Amino acid sequence: MAKFLTQKAKINISVEIHPSAESAYQFFHSQPFLFNKNNFSFSALEALYQGQIYSVVSAGESKFLLIGGFEIIGLSINQVNFKNQKILVYDDMTEYAIEMFAWKSALRVLLSSVNRRQFGDVRRSLNDKAPQHIIKSIFSSKLTLAKFSELAPISVAGLKKQKTKNKIKKQETTTSETHIKPTIFEQLVKEANDGS
Q: Which has the higher per-residue pLDDT, 21 or 46?
């Protein structure tokens, strides 16, 4: 059973991420989206928070643990004024139910907003970061290239091509990072050591 928190109950409200929802929260906010969250102003992000329903479980008199509703681009839990938000409090949820709720909330939004060029990265990230029981519960099996290509508008060959392109980009980044010019101080130390 769930019920909305009254305005009076939100006076001294404190909200944190539930430990069982943390991996879904971190996963969601580390994904590439169609829009770059860094290009949104704070007021634009704040406007997106309005009307969002935040799902929580109680952890004390005015302390609540967030289990859903965090799946908004650019959400920072420290910037949300929860006194002005709609908060739905769930009772008697097991840790497993909370984890499942959080992952389903994250995937519901993520799978409708993935950048097409990032399908391969999202598939890999899901397989690496989501608990396997969550993957099996939602997708019936591990997200193989074939399974993902059934779900998304991309072929297995397209996913492999993305993987190759991303591998080349990572190698180029690593190579450029290793060819960074030493600072003047580093050059002087090297010269001093070579001369002795």
A: 21
- The DSSP line for the chain is -EEEPPTGGGTT-EEEE-TTTHHHHHHHHTS-BSS-GGGS-HHHHHHHHTTPEEEEEE-SSSEEEEEES--STT--TTT--GGGSEEEEE-S--HHHHHHHHHHHHHHHHTTSB-GGGHHHHHHHHHHHS-HHHHHHHHSS---HHHHHHHTT--HHHHHHHHHHHHHHHHHHHHHHHTPPPPHHHHHHHHHHHH-
pLDDT of residue 64: 96
| Two structure tokens written together for 148 | 């993902």
Q: How far apart are CA 189 and CA 192, in angstroms?
A: 5
Q: Which amino acid is at 194?
A: D
The length of the chain in residues reads 196
The residues with which 14 forms a beta bridge, in sequence order, are 63
pLDDT tens sequence across 28-40: 988 877 777 778 8
Output the pTM of the full model: 0.74
Residue 8, both tokens: 């009076």
